[in-house]
Amino acid sequence: MKQFPKVIFFIGLYALAAAQFAPAADLDTRFFYRLTNNFLGPGSSLTVVDIGGTRRLEMTRTSQNSAQIWKFVNRGGGKYAIRSAALGNAFSLDVINDGRNDKLYLAKTGNYSGQLWTVGSWGDGTYELSNDFTGFEKVLDTYSDTHEPFLNPHRDHSGQHWRLIKVR
Hints:
Layout: H1 4-20, E1 22-23, E2 32-37, E3 44-49, E4 56-61, E5 70-76, E6 79-84, E7 91-95, E8 104-108, E9 117-121, E10 127-131, E11 138-142, E12 149-153, E13 162-167
Antiparallel strand pairs: 1-9, 2-5, 2-13, 3-4, 5-6, 7-8, 9-10, 11-12
């Protein structure tokens, strides 16, 4: 019976994490989006860059570059694949499975849990992005020093508040 309070605690933690991930009902998959976050502001956008064929992510100065334009593809059940306009449907946002599981890249599109993203609303016009591989406990964020995108524990940091700006 000594385990009972721990079970209640963990159930409560899971319920809290799930409650904060209210689905983004207004996400329109007919549009492309630019992704910026509250930490860096509208002057920096999520960008795919090809570094030695690795298709990594960086936050770069906002421009008209197609590497900064993203498409959310409905995969059913409130899950989305996130794809770059520059690379098309052949590559999807994924997690590098290296034991830390916090680095991101665009991998060949497939049926992988790291490519199934949930877009949750913070309730203030911004969104949090998590994937099935790492779960609700980690969300897309940016380092404060290098500004590199990564998956960080869910803590309501300004870098975890993403703006999805529709583009033509």
